[in-house]
Amino acid sequence: xxxxxxxxxxxxxxxxxxxxxxxxISLLDALGRWWQLAIDGVESEALxxxxxxxxxxxxxxxxxxxxxxxxxxxxxxxxxxxxGCHLPDPPAAAGADDQAVSDLDPTTVVAALEREGxxxxxxxxxxxxxxxxxxxELPTGPxxxxxxxxxxxxxxxxxxxxxxxxxxxxxxxxxxxxxxxVQVNASDGGVPKRAVPIGQIAHDGLVGDRQADGKHHxxxxxxxxxxxxxARRELADAxxxxxxxxxxxxxxxxxxxxxxxxPGTRLQAGTALLxxxxxxxxxxxxxxxxxxxxxxxxxxxxxxxxxRWYAWVREPGTVRADDPVVVQP
Length: 329
Fold this sequence. Notes:
The chain is 31% helix and 20% strand. It has 329 residues and is of the alpha+beta class. It folds into two domains: 155 residues, dinb family like domain (Four Helix Bundle (Hemerythrin (Met), subunit A)); 151 residues, CATH 2.40.33.20. The strands form three sheets. A seven-stranded mixed barrel has the order 4-9-8-12-11-10-14. The radius of gyration is 20 Å and the shape is globular. It starts with 20 loop residues before the first helix and ends with a strand.
């Protein structure tokens, strides 16, 4: 976190060089939302159950993530104000082996994650641009402000990966399933995206695809956009002139229970491993595909069965039409 060596993680694919401060703020602001959507409908007993004795339960991970986010915020606040400040050693966190299983309330844990994520996001939003180069001094060495913020993002998102694995191990959340890729879509910016015969998927998305709006698109957790062919057909049958790629999705997928998707759901598409992150927010540019212009049909809050989903790329690979899509491989 010295600001010279970018933080990277082989396991979850985190790479600090792909993150902007604005991306970090967006992720932190939505930390509580990710957790709420990820655990929605899962029984409290399952959320408090450990996949193995040495691995925290979902809610134990949530408490830990909120705690680490708060500790980082306190340190970052000092660094942003005073370049060269001296920081105390951060408190040591015990592992699952050192703790008895906790019985935690999901609402309380999600509220803590939302509060701490938004507090750190607000601190970052209010920082002077020049302050991101400030450093603080830990007994173990220097810590740069921007690198510390990105470490908070890595910690939070890596634990999201841990949670998704744990829920899958317990058989909670999204059930296993199998579908297929109908079409791979790319564009040089804007919609519609057009079919391409094969897609090379990297950690930052489909190679050769571009978003015209870099302000609202292009974050690491928006690497790919996914949409349901079954939803498209339902809308087309109702008279709306929507085709694969029309609403900006990179992968048009058939045969998956779209309502069951949630943040943390893993999808093997071709040879790439993806992980669902957040529902995509509808855009006015999609109005042309609806006879009445009501593009809000794509809003998750109104019609989850028609919503698009963003996904992380956990393992790069290739994908083409008719490749299988395995849910929770």
